[in-house]
């Protein structure tokens, strides 16, 4: 197989570090295992962040997400772990990870975890007439 799962999160320099802007990434094929039953759990991950000096490289992110396929993890734990790894790699101004897990036993779970850099506040949205 030419590519393999990897826990390495590659980054590249932010091309516009002086500007606050949002990067939104949708990852519809996240899979991990239920730590109780060993059955697969499926989720769509929504990553939103305001970069500072670094941005995440998308192929590396794909391989990183793939690395969870055979790991057992509770929804809350895996969402916060992924967010923490991304924060450590990127040191963003702001980052939010929303994990929307598919139904299991009649229950849908959505976990939202956020990071905000010390001293950073979101710009006020512009309201146009």
Oligomer: single chain
Looking at the structure, the CATH topology is: GTP Cyclohydrolase I, domain 2
Work out the count of structural domains. 1
Structural class: alpha+beta
* Helicity range: 10-25%
Could you describe the 3D structure shown?
The chain is an alpha+beta fold. The protein has a single domain (11-116), classed as GTP Cyclohydrolase I, domain 2, CATH 3.30.1130.10. It contains 2 helices and 6 strands. The strands form 2 sheets. A 4-stranded antiparallel sheet has the order 2-3-5-6, covered by helices on one side. A two-stranded antiparallel sheet has the order 1-4. A hairpin with a 6-residue loop joins strand 2 (23-33) and strand 3. It is globular, with a radius of gyration of 16 Å. The protein starts with 10 loop residues before the first strand and ends in a 13-residue tail after the last strand.
Which helices and strands, and how do they pair?
Blueprint: E1 11-13, E2 23-33, E3 40-50, E4 54-56, H1 58-66, H2 75-90, E5 94-104, E6 107-116
Antiparallel strand pairs: 1-4, 2-3, 3-5, 5-6
Short description:
With 129 residues, this protein is an alpha+beta fold. The protein is 19% helix and 38% strand.
